[in-house]
Automatic annotation (TrEMBL):
Keywords: Heme, Iron, Metal-binding. This is Cytochrome c domain-containing protein. Coiled coil: none annotated. InterPro entries: Cyt_c-like_dom, Cyt_c-like_dom_sf, Haem-bd_dom_put. Residues 342-478 form the Cytochrome c domain. GO terms for molecular function: electron transfer activity; heme binding; metal ion binding.
């Protein structure tokens, strides 16, 4: 080893110490050093440096049957079984970044077997292999037929939704034709969750287009529900966009305003030329005005204002396609009206409305979308005129941090979002719904600057009075009073279980049974709801997300230093509480010992007699306790 590299002042101290340590040892000790680093104080950054240093020097430890691999030392460590389980996932990630097909095959085999890796690590391994297939164009050697029983178990009751989804996506990423039959089985299984069927048809399109066409035909039949027809149309866009546009127009013409066309629209918005094709198909149909409005709202909520499609939908909705920009005089007059007549409380209700979509992009007190800026203190730093222009004319002045990029792939996919990260292998964008999109650099055909993710025409769905109240709410955020920045740790983002398992009764919640019943549920089983700026979550909002008498709410707390942590819960209705799997007496205040790590607060709210009022949960520091903690926000 060349020791002059070790003295590089720009190298992280931890890495430098690791390399000095390695330099004192003979090359065959590489595996031992890596093991020590994994099991003690050295970081994975240092380990990655170690692998580079010893690459090629430890070849004598490989067998003749092993194909050459930059990740050989890592693979020997994994196969040794000596790696602490909490570090194994990061080690697998490094192998996926550097390993060859044989390395990936070994990881695949371990993840397929239920007794090798714990459930969460199996899911993580499948997801990493999926990303590797997309970004590096490398996949496990051999057949992936081992995924069959995860995709379509012989006994449906044994289905693990999280593992099933991860397996389906891996099958599609690797274009595993041997899995076409189990994928088609799930697509046509009416008992499978919609999200699972959607993932299966998307994978089938990649795996076997002919089989996919046969599976799509019954999905788009008129007798199917709108969600199923939308799923079929979205898959057809990838195979025959013109036929898909015609089918989409039929679906929209038969829809009503209570049905969500998001899946259908997104498929065309993400396909090159798709918005124009759908616009042309819609022009020959009669859409209900409210259906067209719902479609427009969705377009605006994801930051899209494609002219032809906006024009076609606006015509059906009876709206002007593009609002006229306000003059400086009009902005000044509106600002005066906001201060004189605006109501911040009514404005918060507008801000929180799902159809306005503010919270898809923006957060308040760290809860909500993570695309636009957190608005907790926007009123204390922004003039009213600036707020009006930001809402009414968002493309007038876009801050550099929020400039979007539009990327068109060589497969004709269109992606728009803010750049999160870029390297020589992939580009990561964050779209208007906070979803991260990973695009291989080799797949990019075109790339150019886009407009603001905040759409130009969203406010045309609001009345003038609603706009006045919305601006007043924003103008008060962060100022002294009820909309000031909160200093008390308060749960602002809650997750609501859409449907409570039948085994969970309102009368007595069994924490162990609850953990078992909900463990295998994927993210799609939960929906986020947000407390108001003052900290209270309207129970009515939770009931909309989960229409059942017993509402199951959960929130997360990150503990960095263990110790006693206090909770205070206020609710106008009977509730039960638990932290992790420990039931607690919900008498308003309680104290519990928490170890470092992420913990879950579970609340069960009985709304059988009423759904009025707010639930509020605050954390407090216990005198003498060393505990350090933070409420988890986000979307």
């Amino acid at each position: 080893m060349k020791l002059n590299k070790v003295s590089d002042g720009f190298m992280p101290t931890e890495t430098r110490h690791a390399l000095i340590f390695c330099a004192s040892l003979p090359s065959p000790k590489a595996d031992e050093v890596a093991y020590l680093m994994l099991s003690s104080r050295f970081s994975l950054i240092a380990l990655a440096s170690l692998i580079v240093v010893f690459q090629g020097q430890s070849a004598p430890l490989a067998t003749a049957a092993d194909p050459p691999s930059p990740a050989a030392p890592l693979m020997r460590l994994i196969k040794s079984g000596r790696v602490p389980q909490e570090r194994l996932g990061n080690l697998i990630e490094l192998v996926c970044q550097r390993g060859n097909a044989a390395d990936l095959s070994y990881l695949f085999e371990q993840a397929v077997l239920s007794d090798k890796y714990p459930r969460d690590l199996r899911i993580k391994t499948f997801n990493l292999l999926t990303a590797t297939a997309h970004n590096r164009k490398i996949q496990p050697a051999g057949d992936l037929v081992g995924l069959t029983n995860l995709i379509a178990p012989e006994t449906p009751k044994t289905t693990d939704a999280g593992l099933q989804l991860a397996a389906i996506r891996l099958a599609g990423a690797c274009r595993a034709k041997s899995l076409a039959k189990p994928l088609a089985k799930i697509v046509l299984d009416n008992k499978s969750p919609l999200k699972t069927r959607e993932a299966a048809i998307n994978a089938l399109v990649a795996v076997d287009p002919d089989s996919a066409k046969h599976a799509i035909d019954p999905l788009i039949a008129p007798e199917q529900s709108l969600p199923i027809r939308s799923m079929g149309v979205a898959a057809l866009v990838e195979l025959d966009a013109e036929a898909a546009a015609s089918a989409a127009a039929e679906v929209l013409a038969s829809a009503d305003e209570t049905q969500d066309p998001a899946t259908l629209l997104d498929a065309f918005l993400s396909h090159k030329g798709g918005p124009d094709q759908l616009a042309a198909a819609i022009a020959g149909k009669t859409l209900a005005a409210d259906v067209a409005k719902v479609a427009l709202r969705h377009m605006y909520s994801v930051g899209r204002t494609d002219a032809a499609l906006v024009s076609a939908l606006s015509s059906s909705a009876g709206l002007s396609a593009n609002p006229e920009p306000l003059s400086p005089e009009q902005v000044k007059a509106l600002a005066a009206e906001v201060l004189a007549e605006g109501d911040a409380q009514r404005g918060e209700a507008v801000f929180r409305r799902a159809d306005v979509s503010c919270m898809k992009c923006h957060s308040v007190s760290k809860a909500g979308g993570q695309v636009g800026p957190d608005l907790s203190a926007v009123g204390s730093s922004s003039p009213v005129e600036y707020l009006i222009n930001s809402i009414m004319q968002p493309n007038q002045a876009i801050k550099e941090a929020y400039l979007t990029r539009v990327v068109v792939t060589d497969a004709g996919k269109v992606h728009q979002g803010i750049v999160v990260d870029r390297n020589d292998q992939r580009l990561i964008l964050k779209d208007a719904t906070s979803r991260q999109i990973e695009i291989p650099i080799t797949d990019i055909d075109e790339e150019f600057e886009g407009e603001s993710l905040m759409p130009q025409g969203l406010t045309k769905f609001l009345t003038h009075a609603e706009i006045v109240d919305l601006v007043r709410f924003l103008a008060e955020l962060g100022k002294d009073g009820p909309l000031a920045v909160r200093k008390t740790p308060t749960i602002q983002r809650w997750r609501v279980l859409r449907q409570l398992p039948d085994s969970i009764a309102a009368e007595s919640v069994d924490a162990d049974l609850l953990r078992e019943e909900t463990l295998a549920l994927g993210d799609d089983a939960w929906v986020s709801v947000y407390a108001k700026v003052a900290g209270g979550l309207p129970i009515a909002d939770a009931r909309k997300a989960a229409p059942a008498p017993l509402v199951y709410l959960r929130a997360e707390v990150d503990v960095t230093v263990g110790g006693e942590v206090g909770f205070e819960i206020k609710a106008p209705l009977p509730i039960q509480a638990a932290v992790d799997d420990q039931p607690l007496k919900a008498d308003g205040r309680f104290i519990i010992e928490l170890a470092p790590g992420r913990h879950v607060l579970n609340l069960f709210v009985d709304t059988s007699k009423s759904s009025e009022g707010d639930v509020q949960a605050e954390l407090f520091r216990v005198k003498g306790s060393p505990a350090q903690f933070e409420v988890v926000g986000g979307q």
